[in-house]
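Kindly inspect this today.
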Amino acid sequence: MQGLERDTRRACPVTNNAVWPIERILKLLRHWGPTAELSDSKLAAKTAMLLALATMWRPTSEIGALWQKDIRVDGSLLSIQVAYSKTRTYKKLRIQPLTSDNILCPVQMTREYMDRMGYQYHSEEDDQFFRTQKGKSAAPRTVAG
């Protein structure tokens, strides 16, 4: 994920971290090319970035802390539910596919990442969603870059 942060900073220099240059980030992700040609780490980085943009969740504490059981793919819908043990609350959302641009669709990228990592679409696995390698969970900070 550090590569995504480095590439994003080069392509999208900003002085205020609160402002995300969305067009530049999407241009960078599109420039990476077809999903089938991405390494596992670039596919994970692209999936994490698209989920962060689609959900507006914080990369470290929310996207990086996702578990396999938090994510469901039902047909074309992506469902994410995250429980917070400290507050006994949860966030739940559904994301529809971006049909106009498959290469930047968070649903499609999540599906392809799950396929490549060997995840089931309705898993009860208690493992982190993002991994540095097949079989090895990534720390939330690593996902955020």
Notes: The chain has six helices and five strands. Residues 139-145 have pLDDT under 50 and may be disordered. The longest strand covers residues 77-84. Residues 40-55 form the longest helix (16 residues).
